[in-house]
Design brief:
The chain is an alpha+beta fold. It has 17 helices and 9 strands. The chain is elongated and about 125 Å long. The termini are far apart.
């Protein structure tokens, strides 16, 4: 029985020196924990992980509030009543802590069987509590209740098992092939939870059997370690999959902790200064938050624009492939008709028809080549091309290209010369894809042939400084300063290029740039001006 008629209130006397510490170690964590739990719950759109975290925070906060009232109230009956519920609440938030840790590890909800087991764990404590057996008496001189021995032992076993499971969750990732980021996340979150719950549980047990509850009071100062780990996990590791600014919460937490100093200060002037500092900090925080919101809105807007851009690029890529395949199909169909006319499939034809068929076949071949050029450029720019890199003789590629393009050049009345160094010490081996490097070389030579009306084209190849250097020099139309700006760009053509080459697409040099870039090489063009010819250079790393 509780004697409330005593002249001296022993509850006040026994806790008078510890009330300030109790306020600081209980109230601030409750506020910070609830703000964090609700904040994450709302921002994550009420997902499962945030629901479990909020439930854990709520029950732990209930325990803190109950314990705080026990430390600071002078009412014997209120202390007795709240004391009787604390063990049950403690077991519940330990069970929720295990639920939280399990969902964190599994990345999904637990089974109904697992939920039933967690619920059954709390049933004995609930039954003992509601039947008013959780405390067996009250020690009036020191204002403390006597705990139920069985409930105390049961609580110890349950908490020990839960801590053991969390420890296993924390250690197992280091024996699996996981990224360091995942291991770090598990270590920070589960490790801090294990540290806090183990220190809390041990000191709570020692306090209950020794009657010295001061140790349990000071153990609550380990709680900020867990809160910091949670905050870091939320804002840096994004464990709740929410895009939020951690600075908001940190600033609010700073202001709350600043306000916590009011528990310690009795001087009115100092209290006024702290309140004034909190007001200034809050005002500056509003300005800071507005700036953050603008930046956040801009980032969201940019992300949406990037998403739209990616969608447009995919649509354009699909459209290019659709159109070019249709066009190529049409060219191929008419090509077979012209070829059939020329090889006698449709009978004998007169010389005039034969001449027109030859022109049609030549035009179709040029059209198919143009379509392939655009398709290649599209595939190269989208990254769908897979290069088969191996050691190849780049000189061999150049010689084959000269042999193939020489007929085309001579048909236009151009001379094609080679300036290839044949020193035995020269190394022309490179690491690359033979097919695509040949495409790049052919495009450069084709470009010079198309833009050269008369004169010659000189193909150069040399070795030096660990580089293989290829060049194509012509006596063509040259390049003015304005046209140099669009060289090697997608669809980039000089303003007068169509008058010299009506089939110009602007994708030839663009494809060369993409191919050589993928080979970690360089390509560039030079010209002294219009009518003074051009020289295009290609440079790759030599390999031994």
């Amino acid at each position: 029985m509780i004697d409330v008629n005593a002249a001296i209130n022993t509850c006040y006397e026994t806790t008078n020196s510890l009330r300030v510490i109790a306020s600081y170690s209980h109230i601030i964590p409750v506020i910070l924990s609830l703000i964090l739990g609700v904040f994450v719950f709302i921002k994550s759109k009420f997902n499962l992980f945030s629901k479990v975290f909020l439930a854990f925070v709520v029950f732990f906060s209930l325990w803190l509030i109950g314990d705080y009232i026990i430390w600071t109230t002078n009412g014997y009956h209120l202390i007795y009543t709240l004391w009787s519920f604390l063990d049950y609440i403690e077991i519940v938030f330990y069970a929720l802590g295990l639920y939280f840790a399990t969902v964190f590890v599994k990345k999904s909800d637990i089974s109904y069987v697992y939920k039933i087991v967690l619920f059954l764990i709390t049933v004995p404590a609930f039954f003992i509590t509601i039947t008013q057996q959780s405390v067996t008496g009250f020690n009036y001189p020191v204002c403390e209740a006597f705990n139920n021995d069985f409930l105390g032992q049961y609580k110890l076993v349950v908490e020990g098992m839960i801590l053991l499971i969390i420890l296993v969750f924390m250690v197992v990732p280091f024996f699996r092939k996981l990224s360091w980021k995942q291991k770090k996340t598990d270590l920070i979150l589960l490790g801090s939870m294990f540290l806090f719950l183990s220190i809390f549980g041990v000191t709570e047990y020692i306090s209950s059997i020794t009657g010295n509850y001061n140790a349990n009071l000071y153990s609550l100062f380990v709680l900020p370690v867990f809160l910091v780990a949670i905050i870091y996990s939320v804002f840096e590791l994004d464990i709740f999959n929410v895009k939020i600014l951690g600075s908001h919460y940190l600033v609010v937490g700073f202001i709350i902790m600043m306000g916590g100093q009011l528990f310690f200060i009795d001087n009115a002037t100092n209290r006024l200064l702290i309140v004034l500092s909190m007001f200034i900090a809050a005002s500056l925080s509003v300005i800071l938050f507005r700036n953050f919101k603008r930046e956040s809105d801009q980032r969201v807007h940019i992300e949406k624009l990037n998403t739209k851009l990616q969608d447009l690029l995919k649509q354009r890529e699909s459209l290019v492939h659709l159109i070019t395949h249709k066009v190529k199909g049409s060219f191929t169909h008419s090509k077979y008709i012209f070829a059939g006319l020329l090889d006698g499939t449709f009978g004998n034809i007169n010389p005039e028809v034969k001449k027109r068929a030859e022109q049609g076949l030549e035009s179709d071949n040029a059209g198919i080549q143009t379509v392939d050029l655009v398709l290649n450029a599209s595939n190269l720019s989208s990254g769908t091309v897979k290069y088969e890199l191996k050691k190849i003789d780049f000189k061999d590629i150049i010689l084959k290209a000269i042999e193939e393009k020489k007929i085309q050049a001579e048909a236009k009345g151009l001379k094609m010369e080679s300036d290839i160094h044949n020193n035995k010490k020269d190394i022309y081996d490179v690491m690359g894809d033979a097919f695509w490097l040949k495409e790049a070389v052919n495009n450069l030579i084709d470009n010079s042939i198309k833009y050269t009306k008369e004169g010659k084209i000189v193909i150069g190849l040399e070795d030096g400084d660990g580089k293989v250097k290829f060049s194509v020099k012509d006596t063509g139309v040259g390049i003015n300063d304005e046209d140099k700006k669009v060289l090697f760009t997608e669809g980039g053509r000089g303003k007068d290029s169509v008058h010299v080459n009506i089939d110009s697409t602007g994708y030839g040099l663009y494809s060369v740039k993409l191919i050589i870039g993928a080979h970690h090489g360089k390509v560039w063009g030079e010209s002294e001006g219009e009518g003074k010819g051009s020289t295009f250079h290609l440079e790759l790393d030599a390999v031994k």
